[in-house]
Write a structure and sequence with these properties.
This protein is an alpha+beta fold. It has 8 helices and 8 strands, in the order E-E-E-E-E-H-H-E-H-H-E-E-H-H-H-H. The strands form 2 sheets. It has a 5-stranded antiparallel sheet. The chain has a 3-stranded antiparallel sheet with strand order 6-8-7. A hairpin with a 2-residue loop joins strand 7 and strand 8.
């Protein structure tokens, strides 16, 4: 029997070697996909299945999870707390396969902007205002990263980004290490092997 569980924020699968007890008191000696021997209690297990083979399920589920439309999933999820198996039947249809269920678990676990974790395999969709605020923050961050990449390329090419010229002294002597400008400069230095001063002089 294969057991789906969560460890360190990631969805994993282990194969049970032996089990003791029953119901919620049940536990298993199992082997993870990486070959590690672990002990899993019933309350830690999200899903149990016999077939397909564990590694195959994980490989396919990881690919499929990237194709899941999170906005559509949020739209079809109930407003109250739900289990991932139930919502997989909403999303994929009533005959959702094990691979689809595991893919959905991976997608839900990896989308905290859309869904809050409520316990073992259980989630609740984020309120719409929080969702919109979270998506706006992600978009801002993406634009910052794109700009940072452009600045880095200009530094490497020996061109000082026009917008950063007024910050030249600050960047060299008292930089804000969390700023996109500083990150672009240090990434360019790592790429060229120069110090910040050498790169700026060039």
């Amino acid at each position: 029997m294969n057991l789906v569980y969560e460890e360190g924020g990631d969805i994993k699968i282990a194969t049970a070697q032996s089990g003791v007890g029953s119901g919620d008191a049940e536990s298993w000696q199992a082997t993870s996909l990486s070959g590690k021997k672990i002990k899993l209690k019933a309350k830690e297990v999200w899903l149990r299945f016999e077939k397909p083979e564990a590694q195959l399920v994980m490989n396919e589920a990881q690919i499929l999870s990237k194709e899941i439309d999170l906005q559509l999933l949020w739209d079809c999820a109930p407003t109250e707390e739900f289990g991932f198996v139930d919502v997989s039947q909403e999303y994929f249809g009533s005959q959702a396969k094990v691979v689809q269920q595991v893919a959905l678990a991976i997608a839900l676990q990896g989308a905290p902007v859309y869904f809050r974790r409520k316990g073992r395999g259980r989630f609740q969709r984020a309120p719409e205002e929080q969702l919109q605020a979270g998506l706006a923050a992600i978009e801002r961050k993406q634009k910052e990263l794109e700009l940072q990449s452009v600045w880095q390329q200009e530094f490497v090419a020996g061109k000082f980004p026009e917008k950063l010229r007024p910050q030249a002294n600050q960047l060299l002597f008292s930089p804000d290490k969390n700023s996109s400008a500083y990150k672009a400069l240090t990434a360019a230095c790592a790429e060229t092997g120069e110090s910040a001063a050498q790169l700026m002089i060039r």
